Amino acid sequence: MSNSTADATESKELYPYKPSFALALIFGAAFSLVFLYHLFQYIRNKAWFLYFILLGIAMELVGFWARAYSTKNLENFASYSVSYLLIMLAPSVLAAGLYQTFGRLLYYTVPPSHRTFRTLLLPARFIAPFFVIFDVLAFFIQLIGLGIVIQNIKKKDNTEARDRGINILRAGLILQTLVFGAFAVLSMRIILISKRWRFAWPDSGKWRRLGWVVAAGSYLITFRALFRILEFSINDSDNYLSKTEWPAYVFDAVPMLLLCISYNFYHPSKYLPESHMSLSHAYKRLGNPNPDPKLRDVELSRREPGDGDLPVAVAGGNWAGLPQRTRPPPPLYFSLRKLIPLLEDEFTDVFA
After folding, report:
1. How far from the centroid of its chain's Cα atoms is residue 283's Cα?
2. Residue 290 pLDDT > 70
3. Number of C-alpha atoms within 13 angstroms, CB side, residue 148?
4. For position 280, what pLDDT does the model report?
5. What is the pLDDT of residues 95-122, one digit of tens each?
6. Spatial CA neighbour of 297 closest among 271, 267, 275, 318
7. From CA 303, how far away is CA 170, in angstroms rounded?
8. Which residues pair with 302 in a beta bridge?
9. Is the four-CA dihedral 111, 112, 116, 121 of positive or negative sign?
10. Enclosing H/E stretch for 299
11. Alpha-carbon distance 295 to 292, whole Å?
């Protein structure tokens, strides 16, 4: 009886609920299987630039195996700390993999004449580094906050230090959310307006599947970050999100698992050439290495409702002299009235 009481007391210090061994085991096993398949794809397809994706999945699987061990060894503070740190920080590492993928996708699919601030809102060469830098900054802010929280989690008389750590952690999560949200909007916008240079699409536009997977992944990470901000923003005494276990699995573990699995099914190696898989930046000079010769120096016609044939000069991706509606839209241009039918048409076209 005394041992049971001691375990319950220890559990109450580390977990404000009785942690589930079965859930931790299920997610540990799921992330392990996903990791093994990713490792196979990584080596087989020589997708060397995807090391952040591989590292992020490894952090998730170690985190959940450590959590499974922690649920059976409630007195073990080390396993609790490892699981808490890795599960909290893994999404930032996965996000860096999304940024890398999208940067390579831009150079593969966007004509050089459209890699401008007007179209992309950022110079193409700066898009991936810009988001990675802010992602790393948010990562270290969260790491500092988590370190302070974990050091003081068992010290009931040192709530001031713990609150300071939570505030730092919250600041890192807010920065992370802003960065993810901006990237989600930017990536979706570029995919939607890319139909305006469809003459330059490699592989008949199948790459757009990967583009939507990247965009959806960024929304999943943003959703997860919003949940964590809410979790750390509510007063402890009334915080249902932190005092029950299921929200962490539903709003954190499940979205991250879906993101990792989507990369298995829509692996970048299926849509990017081998030249874009390496760690070097040579892909920035190559662009699309296999343009369709039929699309060079010719004119295509596109018929839109209510219009006659609109000639589209495809030589060099030059939009000069064309009707205004055929040119790339100005920055942040969205017609909300047309957005829903546009998305319906997009998903029918891309995933059919």
Report:
1. 22
2. no
3. 18
4. 65
5. 999 998 988 888 888 777 777 777 777 7
6. 318
7. 51
8. 310
9. positive
10. strand 299-303
11. 6
Q: How many CB atoms lie within 10 A of CB 311?
A: 14
Question: Residue 106, Cα to own-chain centre: how many angstroms?
Answer: 16
Q: Which two tokens stand for residue 279?
A: 């760690």
pLDDT at 243 over 90: no
Residue 46 is encoded by which pair of tokens?
A: 């020589």
What backbone torsions phi and psi does residue 33 show, to the nearest 5 degrees? -65, -45
Percentages helix, strand, coil for the chain, rounded to the nearest 5? 75, 5, 20
CB count in 10 Å sphere of residue 189: 19
* pLDDT computed for residue 128 by the predictor: 81
pLDDT greater at residue 233 or residue 345: 233
More confident residue, 287 or 76: 76
Helix (H) or strand (E) holding 14: helix 2-14
Cβ-proximal residues to 1 (8 Å cutoff; 6+ apart), any chain: none
Q: Which two tokens stand for residue 272?
A: 């990017």
Do residues 61 and 35 touch, judged by C-beta distance below 8 A?
yes
pLDDT digits 0-9 by tens, 49-65 = 999 999 999 999 999 99
pLDDT at 339: 54
- Cβ atoms of 83 and 39 closer than 8 Å: no
Task: Give 95's contacts (C-beta < 8 A, 6+ positions apart).
Answer: 131, 135, 176, 179, 180, 183, 218, 221
Predicted local confidence at residue 74, as pLDDT: 86
- Tell me what pLDDT residue 274 has: 79
The pTM of the full predicted model, rounded to 2 decimals, is 0.76
Mean pLDDT, all residues of the chain: 76
Collapse the DSSP code of 311 into the 3-class scheme (helix H, G, I; strand E, B; otherwise coil) and give the result: strand
Residues whose CB falls within 8 Å of the CB of residue 225, separated by 6 or more in sequence, listed in order: 91, 173, 176, 177, 180
Q: Tell how strand 299-303 and strand 309-313 pair up.
A: antiparallel
